[in-house]
């Protein structure tokens, strides 16, 4: 099997949520795995000079309309903006890396459940209890998860993955690497699909 | 015929160039006209707080790679970044509105020629002489064009169109309005195509 598609995202990113609902089938069509990589955009913005979407005025007005429109097109539940927004996705991201190491089959389903908790149900996914709730939905022991959140291994892991993402030029969410080629934004998924079908251009 | 697709762009926008090469066939497929609307993003950024793409560090590194990649996919000439970049597109924009009023069939071909001058040939399209050169290519009298550039009517017109774009929520280039629905970015053209085919979602 060829190399996986690396899928960088911040759990606080609405466009990351939309991508999480689409990347699996696209990768499967081309017999690729997906390497899910939650990162903290806030940490990246400190170096890149970026800002959260919600600080962009007109662009933020547009983005809220667009993510709702894209959710309709993908026949997802009505888009909900959680409060606070953006939120610090420490707990969900650490939980993901813990799961990937200990129960890898459940890691991607958990990520999708956490995203849906935020953007379909409007939960405050910065809270460990909300993250544990999403984990329960996909059969994960929530007590073990709460314990893992304080484990230095997963804290360090999240920091390392975020640093590596930055070193690879990641500046936003979602961000994909396909055989070294970078693609930014959920609307580039169609381009990735065509790229994989044709071998690139 | 249904309302035209309004296509806002800045002549200094590489993604605007890529969109200018695609919007015609997409609109024609759905029996729509295109209302080409050059604007000055610099003026919009003063209100919106936006910045030129070239000030975005990692995103700019990515964007240069991406526009070259998209140009290859569209089988356009190799992408060239003109110097200086970004440039102030006063002359090309005023020339466009003059043409639209006086020789409307040539306005869109002129816009495409001006874009190609910048991003396929690397010319400094902030210069009236370069704009006149692009106009000559599509059969426009360059002396008449040079005279029009100093006409207050087209100066005012450009300012009014830019103000109106801002009032409609335009914050970047390309930006499309389809029956009142906003779409930002060249990669949304596929979404516009699907939207027009299905009647929206």
Strand content of chain A: 5-15%
**Element order of chain A: H for helix, E for strand:** EHHEHHHHHHHEEH
Q: Which structural class should the secondary elements of chain A be placed in?
A: alpha+beta
Specify the oligomeric state: homodimer
Tell me the count of domains of chain A.
1
- Helices of chain A, by number, come to 10
Description:
Two copies of one chain form a homodimer. Chain A is an alpha+beta fold and 201 residues long. Chain A has a single domain (5-198), classed as Glutaredoxin. Helices cover 53% and strands 9% of the residues of chain A. Chain A contains ten helices and four strands. The first copy, chain A, has helices spanning 14-20, 23-29, 41-48, 58-73, 90-102, 107-119, 128-137, 142-148, 152-167, 189-198, and strands at residues 5-9, 34-38, 175-178, 181-184. Chain A has a four-stranded mixed sheet with strand order 2-1-3-4, sandwiched between helices. In chain A, helix 6 (107-119) crosses helix 7. The longest helix of chain A is centred in the first third of the chain and has 16 residues, at 58-73. Chain A is globular and about 50 Å long. The two termini of chain A are 21 Å apart. The model of chain A has no long low-confidence stretch (mean pLDDT 96).
């Amino acid at each position: 099997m060829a190399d996986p598609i690396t899928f960088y995202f911040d759990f606080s990113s609405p466009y990351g949520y939309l991508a999480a609902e689409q990347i699996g089938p696209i990768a499967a069509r081309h017999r690729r795995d997906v390497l899910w990589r939650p990162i903290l955009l806030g940490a990246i913005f400190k170096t890149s000079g970026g800002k959260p979407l919600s600080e962009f005025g007109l662009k933020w007005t547009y983005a809220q309309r667009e993510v709702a429109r894209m959710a309709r097109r993908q026949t997802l539940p009505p888009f909900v903006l959680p409060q606070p927004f953006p939120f610090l996705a420490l707990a969900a991201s650490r939980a993901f890396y813990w799961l990937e190491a200990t129960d890898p089959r459940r890691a991607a389903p958990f990520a999708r459940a956490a995203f849906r908790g935020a953007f379909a149900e409007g939960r405050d996914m910065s809270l460990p209890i909300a993250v544990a709730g999403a984990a329960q939905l996909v059969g994960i022991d929530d007590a073990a998860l709460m314990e893992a959140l304080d484990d230095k291994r997963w804290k360090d892991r999240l920091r390392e993955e975020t640093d590596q993402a930055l070193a690879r030029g990641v500046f936003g969410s979602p961000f994909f690497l396909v055989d070294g080629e970078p693609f930014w934004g959920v609307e580039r998924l169609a381009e990735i699909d065509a790229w994989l079908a044709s071998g690139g251009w």
